TrEMBL record:
Every Clp ATPase C-terminal domain range: 25-114
One of the GO BP terms on file: cellular response to heat
Cellular component terms (Gene Ontology): cytoplasm
Stretches of the chain forming a coiled coil according to its record: none
Molecular-function annotations in GO: ATP binding; ATP hydrolysis activity
Highest taxon of source: Bacteria
InterPro entries: Clp_ATPase_C (IPR019489), ClpA_ClpB (IPR050130), P-loop_NTPase (IPR027417)
Classification lineage: Bacteria, Bacillati, Actinomycetota, Actinomycetes, Kitasatosporales
Name the UniProt record assigns to this protein: Clp ATPase C-terminal domain-containing protein
Amino acid sequence: MDELRRHFRPEFLNRIDDVVLFKPLTMPEIERVVDLLTEDLRHRLADRRLDLRLTEAARRHIADQGFDPVYGARPLRRFIQREVETRIGRALLAGDIADGSTVTADAEAGHLTIHIAEPAAAAPHAPH
């Protein structure tokens, strides 16, 4: 509030009903936002019987690269759409992901990677 008083005249400050000061998000809080945003994607992929997993490295990478101190957590959604959803969508359209697969997002050498593990084939039934 002292900072506001140094920059604005009292007449202007008297017209403001309320001032809300925000403390910066911590990295664990940003990572929690990443989890919440990817949960929505998990539900959509579940319709195709796909499982989405994020490694700790991927969660940290997304939080670090997608968070902006000025805009807060808002850019995280766009980062996830661009770096995770778009890659998965392209792989689905190309037929590279079978129903029942597990899609794992990881971070390697400073880049987000997407790995696809197809479901294990069902073991043949033994004759009776």
